[in-house]
User: Fold these one by one.
Assistant:
Number 1:
Amino acid sequence: MARCLVIGANGFLGSRLADALARTGHEVTGFDRYSRRIRAFESPDVVPLRGDFLDPRDVAAAVSGAEYVFHFLSTTTPASADREPTVDLRTNVSASVELLSLCVTAGVRRVFFASSGGAIYGPQPRRTFAEDAPALPVSPYGIGKLTIERYLDYYATTAGLDSVALRISNPYGPRATPAKGQGIIPITLDRLRRGEPAVQVGDGSMIRDYIHVDDLVARILRMVERAPRHRAYNLGSGRGHSVAEVLAAIRAVVGRDFEIVRAPQPATFVDHVVLDVARFRDEYGPARDLSLIEGIADTWTRMTTR
């Protein structure tokens, strides 16, 4: 078992990952600001470590002694990076590079970086995207993720830091934070729970690859158990669903119709992104994923019964 540091352990993905790592016997430290004064993770075996990702002293103390570092913290969202791209550069990108440098100094064995399985590829005419497809992001969020990936390559080349970029598609499920304005499924379910209309971005034809958080975390655990052979992996379902299809699935789960308010599609949004997941499947075997309906139903049930 390994000494694991999850950076962003109080977030949606980080908290689920921290719980899963602890459940499988790893020694887990959860680094975050804990600004909400609550702990999103549930395991009593996760050791919380309060700190500021933008303070190198806090980060240096966190990585000291860690074997595996999971970088699952972002200071921006796609929307906020669009509004203020320089903030993404000054905070998210800069602090991530500082983290990698500190990991080298601390002798960390491997860094797992939560990259993007959508924005990083950008608008292209292809229908599916494998890891060797050109990365042509046009959004500040995607550009930032790709820049951090390139620094992973830099530190691997110059300092031997082992790392892997996890190009995650569109994760959803319990503990997602709709208030951050990211993720059509959690945002819509939360609005319906509060009696508000759903918001449809664009004309409903935009296609994305959605993966339930439990299925995503199960993939990451397999990569912890057996060292990955590649430097980047697409982590998604490999199936595409349009916005209209997602809203129809939500309608079926909640058992009623609902009002839909339309919003313009930002110029930097990609129309069609479905991940080719053959690299992961060939190396780690097939995955038994929840269907979109099953995943939405699980999310809705846990959201309305907590």
Number 2:
Amino acid sequence: MQFRPLHDRVVVKRIDAEAKSKGGIIIPDTAKEKPQEGEIVAVGPGGRDEHGTLVPLDVKVGDRVLFGKWSGTEIKIEGEDLLIMKESDIMGVVEAAATLKQAA
């Protein structure tokens, strides 16, 4: 089954957080918070402005993004837990360290 979001919506797969704290303490699954970082797995075509012109999304499939703790709607597709959210719920794109060094 394939899923294609509509308008300015994106489908995000959560990226699991580390199971250890910085001090080396192992955190049990019941004490973990849901991660607020994910990877975009599908994007809609974009929203429309007041003139009806299609405005493409700034994110693309494969981008690692940060989003709010309560953002999106949780769904399950083919046994995989995913989130559907509007692009405006995404706070930013996490870029690779090499890309950030080149920009500096």
Number 3:
Amino acid sequence: MNVSGQQRKIAVLGAPIEIGASQRGTLMGPDALRTAGLLSLLEGLDFVVEDHGNMTVDGVAALHDTPPGNAKHYREIQRWIRTISARAYDLARSGAIPIFVGGDHSLSMGSINGVARHCREQGKELFVMWLDAHADYNTPATTITGNLHGMSAAFLCGEEGLDGLLGHEPRASIDSSRLELFGTRSIDKLEKDLVKLRRISVADMRKIDEFGVSVLIRRVIDKVRAVDGVLHLSFDVDFLDPEVAPGVGTMVPGGATYREAHLIMELLNDSGIVHSLDIVELNPFLDERGRTARSVVELIGSLFGQQIADRPTPTNAM
């Protein structure tokens, strides 16, 4: 985000939710990233960093809608999503760049909804880049597992089946044409059919192998710039190859290399279009001596302008 003449601010909010996934342990993700130096790295890049700690839903009242039959832990996740959405909206309005640190990918149903509400009020088109091994475009009608982290992208695009999830919190769905699936390499049959029906842009690993990340990322950047839009980056750690990032519960071989991931982050920083960010699915319980957490922090450094050598760019910082 370019804030000319002003000190740049980042607001970090931990969302330690783990019940949207089948493998427990992601609730430790926010603190693992802090321990790996996330906050000090961002401060070293001349940002004013506000750490809002880790959220809790203790004391948040349950709603009384009818849960979908095939959505695990619906009621508790509903409490999380409502709360995250409200906090995300407030952080987006504050003028800071919000970073939502998870936690499993179900948190994005709240974080992006809150950011989208703010963008709608500002007359800005919000695009979402889904850096993920999975499409996460299941619904209660198509899911095999019933895990809500696999329905998060579909919910954001207004698909039916989780209509009561936000309760009275306003729903700000994005059009499916503004969702960019990037790095996809695992998708269920019915989910694939729905993605195809909605004509969602998918840069799977074959396309990345064929064209390279720079060509594909620039296409996304051009699409966002064409309408003077902004981008929310939803970064699932399993986007990376397991050799780079073993600390995930949904490991899929054949992911992005460390260098490919850094190039993506560097190009996005150069573009100046990223205004908010999720970091999800880091499971320190499965990591190797903090290796995945350190790699993620280094990638976030590239996203926010860390460079080995200065180089001319269209814009030097987000």
Number 4:
Amino acid sequence: MRGEVIGVWSETWREIWSKLAKHPDAPEDLFCELYRELAGAFETTIDVTALADIVDEPDQARKVFRKTKAAAFRGEVALLEFFERAHNVVVDLGGDPLANRYFLLTESFLEKYSLRYDLRRPFSLNPTLPGVFARLIRELREATYQDAELHPLMVEFEDAIRDLKTSQSTGRIKTCIQKQVNLLEAIGQRCPGVTSNTLGAICDEVGTWPHNRLKDAMKKLYGFASDYPGIRHGGTPANSLRNIEMRDLVAVSILLAGFSPYLTNLINSDTIYRGS
């Protein structure tokens, strides 16, 4: 599951819309007005006459609304905007009782399908931090999938993460960090204006940092991976304070992934936050 509404749109009929229509305050023409708003999220604009023929007949509007497929929408953002406009429609048609029912149904839907938003009153769909991070990883996966050289590096990193289920040994944890650094290094080499092939030097060339301290932090993470024995090189054993543990995998992996938007133009940070 992608964590986005558009991926589970087909389930909204059973979970939201059909239940909303059964509310005592739901009017007969509920789907006439909802479909009028839904059409505004379509990739292809509906002819005015065709739209009028649908929304002038409650049974027809209900039928067409129910049969609408996710492929019809421009994207996730357009669909979210429909959901928020739909709240205004529901308020106008059924007042606060119907609007509250719509809010609770949508909130329950988001929780049931573990989607990347939380819902705030009166009706605002907001990306969550876990959702943003999940979208970042997905965007990296999709960007690397299209590159014959980057794709194997992404696969190796993900395979190393999966291998931890068998054994969470120090060696396997080191391999995960190594594979992630290799991936970021290769991604950074694709950034416009970059001529270096080591992550530390790439940090000096990308020109994306808002402050030198952030750049320094990324370079120090790279320095850690290079200096700690057995991650990228033999390293400096005297500088090791203890063995690598799972806490290091979690922390370092999240930190490295978080720096990736500075190292590449292959992902869109606005899309990561809002959806496509």
